[in-house]
Write a structure and sequence with these properties.
The structure is a single chain. This protein is an alpha/beta fold. The protein has a single domain, classed as Rossmann fold. It contains six helices and seven strands; from the N terminus they run ααβαββαβαβαββ. The structure holds S-adenosylmethionine. The site of S-adenosylmethionine has 23 residues, from helix 3 and strand 2.
């Protein structure tokens, strides 16, 4: 956590309420506005470390929750985690196995895919934006391959010139799509969350 965040309202609240990250409040705010996670849902969270979203997803769903990150995630009661790269071949199959196994819905399908994955910032905005879009593309492809029809998808994207094209690709596979910045995102942040509901069908040639 950077020094400038130490006295941030949501940082302090996360400490007080036992969440691992201030990001937990972004998912809470997104869910209370858009109703993403229902009781019993199978939820897959990409770029999940240190685990704030996983804690919130588990509270909301109570069902199978799986988190994937390059970094190991300290264990959370009732949550399965996997140290893996979401852009690597084989990661989607590994996720399918986790959600299809015992405790999952038995079909290797999720009701909700979340991605708060973000690249390490280089300081070169167009480079960081392109890497953020690349992660978001992999998250979308994962969502298309594992979501159940009618499922929901939330993904973080840094704003920039590739944003509009990406939004169009999300629109082509979901029934309703909104771009949203939760109040818990910092005012100076250029991050936006795309909230996509009612998964219809995957694009061809994934
Ligand atoms: N939502 C999390 C929470 O509430 O604790 C915070 C996520 S943090 C902003 C972004 C995460 O994305 C980092 O932990 C980073 O390791 C992860 N990440 C970035 N690239 C990734 C990749 N290719 N595969 C898996 N995780 C990745």
């Amino acid at each position: 956590m950077m020094a400038r965040n130490r006295h941030d309202h949501f940082y302090r609240l996360a400490k007080k309420e036992g969440y691992r990250s201030r990001a937990a409040y972004k998912l809470k705010q997104i869910d209370s506005r858009f109703r993403i996670i229902r009781r019993g849902d199978v939820v897959v969270d990409l770029g999940a470390a240190p685990g704030g979203w996983l804690q919130v997803a588990k509270e909301l769903s109570g069902g199978t929750v799986v988190g994937i990150d390059l970094q190991p995630i300290r264990s959370i009661d009732g949550v399965t985690t996997l140290a893996a790269d979401v852009t690597a071949d084989g990661t989607i199959d590994a996720i399918r196995e986790l959600i299809g196994g015992e405790g999952g819905n038995g079909h290797g399908r999720a009701n909700v895919v979340l991605s708060d994955a973000a690249p390490n910032l280089s300081g070169d905005w167009s480079y960081d934006h392109a890497r953020s879009i690349d992660l978001a593309e992999h998250a979308l492809s994962c969502a298309e391959q594992i979501l159940t029809p009618g499922g929901n998808f939330v993904v973080k994207v840094f704003q920039g010139d590739l944003f509009h094209g990406y939004l169009q690709r999300v629109r082509s596979v979901f029934g309703t799509v909104r771009a949203h910045s939760p109040a818990a995102s910092r005012k100076v942040s250029a991050e936006t969350y795309i909230i996509a509901k009612k998964f219809r069908r995957a694009r061809r040639n994934l």
